[in-house]
Amino acid sequence: MNNLAGTTFAGAASTHSGNALQLAGDGPTEASTQAQVNINQSSSVGAADSRQNLATTFQLVVAVAQTFRVTFEADAFMRLALGQEDVIAQADRNWRLDVTVVGDPLADPILTWAPDGSLLTGLSGTCLGAGLCSELDDDFTLNLAAALQTTGDSQRIDGAVNNDFGLLVTLLPGSYQLAINHDTSADAQAIPEPGSLALLGAALLGLVGLRRKSKNIPAVA
Question: What is the pTM of this model?
Answer without folding.
Answer: 0.73
